[in-house]
Amino acid sequence: MEELIKLVTKKTGISEEQAKQAIETVLGFLKQKLPTPLSGQIDALLSGKGLPTDLTKGLGGLFGKK
Fold it and tell me: Can you tell me the distance from the alpha carbon of 8 to that of 6, in angstroms, rounded to the nearest whole number?
């Protein structure tokens, strides 16, 4: 998440604290709106573990692919 905070700070010119608050707000929104199997993978993705296989399968389902 630190990498994302730095990117937002650099591109917007806001402070790191403001960037962190903005990111946490967006992530909270996404976790509420995404299907449960996908929302649970957001933290794993931000921790640098990449996209788990079950997440990529779930994303395919969102677009009508299996």
Answer: 6
Other beta carbons less than 10 A from residue 19's beta carbon: 20
Q: CA 38 to CA 28: how far, in whole Å?
A: 13
Give me the amino acid identity at 28.
G
Residue range of the domain that includes 21: 2-62
- pLDDT tens for 24-56 read 999 999 988 888 878 778 877 777 766 555 555
Total number of domains in the chain = 1
Half-sphere exposure in the Cβ direction for 56 (13 Å, CA): 4
